[in-house]
UniProtKB/TrEMBL annotation:
UniProt lineage: Bacteria, Pseudomonadati, Bacteroidota, Cytophagia, Cytophagales
Gene3D superfamilies linked to this entry: 3.30.70.100, Homeodomain-like
Keyword NADP among UniProt keywords: no
HTH araC/xylS-type domain segment(s): 77-178
PANTHER family: ARAC-FAMILY TRANSCRIPTIONAL REGULATOR (PTHR43280), HTH-TYPE TRANSCRIPTIONAL REGULATOR EXSA (PTHR43280:SF2)
Keywords annotated in UniProt: DNA-binding, Transcription, Transcription regulation
Protein name: Helix-turn-helix domain-containing protein
A molecular function (GO) term: DNA-binding transcription factor activity
Length: 190
């Protein structure tokens, strides 16, 4: 089955977009638009997802075949954008409002599909995502825990600290003392 739209797993940043675009171009395809989780190809160079998958897999990506898997990856990409929305919006939307606006579907539907395919709730995935962003901020050592908590929309530094320990099994202080703190790439969260 030839297609002009590929759904691609593990695209989590602008460098991933560049990498996928370069891989497709090197393989002779002409991508017209590459975004997080998707690559639109010129209609004159449609691709068979099965034949493109090994090339992408070698670089740490994968082609998503099923609709539920595609929607789950789109939700993950949207949640990465939601973190930026949380950080910058004066009055940020709730997670459910953000996702229902983005996908024009009920949160209940999105949540069921996500939970079934990712074996994790949207809320738990978002918490993991937030904690990875907190690890990043902590490793720069430029902000206090209270400032990070405020930026990430936690009710307090203590709330952030408690959630950090729940997710990582370590305290924030232990993480800061570690000379080489372990962070996860976003594609390892599920």
């Amino acid at each position: 089955m030839k297609t002009t739209l590929l759904h691609i797993k593990n695209m989590v940043c602008p460098r991933c977009i560049d990498a996928v675009r370069n891989l497709l171009e090197q393989a002779g395809y002409r991508p017209t638009d590459v975004t997080l989780g998707q690559a639109q190809l010129d209609t004159s160079t449609p691709a068979d997802p099965v034949s493109v998958a090994p090339m992408l897999r070698e670089a740490g990506f994968d082609v998503i075949m099923g609709r539920a898997d595609q929607l789950t990856e789109q939700i993950k990409s949207a949640l990465v954008e939601y973190l930026e929305h949380l950080r910058t919006a004066r009055m940020p939307l709730t997670t459910s409002a953000f996702l229902t606006d983005r996908f024009a579907a009920t949160y209940s539907h999105l949540s069921k599909v996500f939970s079934r395919t990712a074996n994790l709730t949207i809320e738990k995935y978002l918490i993991r995502l937030k904690i990875e962003r907190v690890k990043e901020m902590l490793s720069y050592n430029e902000m206090t825990l209270s400032e990070i908590a405020e930026q990430m929309r936690y009710s307090s530094g203590q709330h952030l600290s408690n959630q950090f320990r729940q997710v990582t099994g370590r305290s924030v202080s232990e993480f800061r003392r570690d000379l080489m703190p372990r962070r996860l790439s976003l594609d390892q969260l599920v």
